[in-house]
Write a structure and sequence with these properties.
The structure holds two protein chains of two kinds. Chain A is mainly alpha-helical. Chain A contains seven helices and no strands. Chain B has eight helices and 17 strands. The termini of chain B are far apart. Chain B has three domains: 8-65; 71-233, Sandwich (Jelly Rolls), CATH 2.60.120.1440; 241-310, Phage tail protein beta-alpha-beta fold (3-Layer(bab) Sandwich), CATH 3.55.50. The chains are: A mainly alpha, B alpha+beta. At the A-B interface, helix 1, helix 3, helix 4, helix 5 and helix 6 of A face helix 1, helix 2, helix 3 and strand 1 of B. Chain B: Residues 13-49 form the FecR N-terminal domain.
Amino acid sequence: MTPTGIEAVFLANRDKLVRFLAARGAGDAAEDLVQDLWVKMAGRMDGPIANPLAYLYRAADMLMIDRYRSRRQAERRDQDWAEDQHLQEAGPEPPAERALVARQTAERVAATLTALGERPATVFRRARIEGIPQRQIAAELGVSISTVESDLRMAAHALAALKDQIG
Amino acid sequence: MSQDPVNPIDDVALDWALRMADPARADWDGFTDWLEANPVHAAAYDRMTAALLDAEDSLRAHPDVIAPEPVIVEAEPPRRRPLRWIGGAVAAALVGAVGVGLWSERPQPYVIETAAGEVRRVPLADGSAIMLAGGSRITLDHADPRRAVMERGEALFQVRHDDRHPFSVDARGLALTDLGTVFDVRLGRRMTRVAVAEGAVMVNPRGAALRLDAGQAVLAEGNRLVRQTVAAEAVGGWRDGRLAYDGAALSDVAEDLARFLGRPVAVRPSVAGQAFRGTIDLNAVRRDPRLLGALLNVAVREDGQGWMLEPRG
């Protein structure tokens, strides 16, 4: 059986995806990761995909982001554990406290966005939380796409700066 | 952005993070080149992307902290009309008027509830009237006849307009203010619908301030408001036993039928999303439920006390 659709696209672009993953920080593991990626993706393909190559790239990109985030989380857990050892008595943070901290973080994120003004906050929410295309956001707000882009950039900067502060 | 604490590489990485998440702007070859140009680029991109995702996850987990304004979406794609925003000053004036302490007495709330299949007219002290459809519940206030809180079902408001004291309705969090009006409010399981027969209604005067004129409706689902066009004369047609639809899901139609006919009407999931366009004559259907089958293009099966709408075999 000749491969069709996304499989054909995958096979034709396998080398490019390996190169991408290597540059993306996977190094020598890029070959293995590309194979993992395909196994994962082949299992949950439903419906036609508009741009299969971009879809594969994005999936590879997200795979690396997930790896980064889970690595960072593990490091944080280790660090917490080390601190707990240090404090002997202190068990893990109680759930209520953790929920409170999470809520305070969300409030700071929201405050950072609202401080930029109503439009940048709306643009960020529509684009990044709700996944609305920028063209549509521009139409809804009656502004140009470049305004939407610059609002988005401004919001992203503010959030990156906040992240620097709160870790 | 010179005072920005983000360093130059992070700055570029942040731009890539935004860009690669946007299918319309993603450039995977260009991005690969940038990553290959310097090994620290990948790490910066990870950090910046994670910073954004962390912030977004945090907001998603606490949706109330940003309390988004409802988003208005035009429902008719072929002709895109400009959104009808009302000026902030007008909206503010309306809010002011609603908030004025004219009805300074203590609230004396009372509840009116109808059984499924029942329709009741509720006259108000100011000359307005509310027609309450079956299976509905509304809270009113003896101390302030210009306020109503819809809790369930559907109601047609025939409001005597008073510029100084607009009539306001709270429809499951959607604030409505009349601008001289006959309008219908329906609280469905999934969405709230407001349709205007005469005059105009302001939806959410404090926020989006969306004005609905006669022949217009808005569907609210979560934070999303979708504007629709309706036949003004069909709004509140249920008073005369007519239910008019323009592309409603069968599950919504069944919900209405149950409320107006006073018996359970269920839909098989395979046809629940089927769209219906047309008018249902409730009296005719009461006499002969099989009519529904032909009208809705389903099979109607008697199911104990009620009906089950199924795909036609």
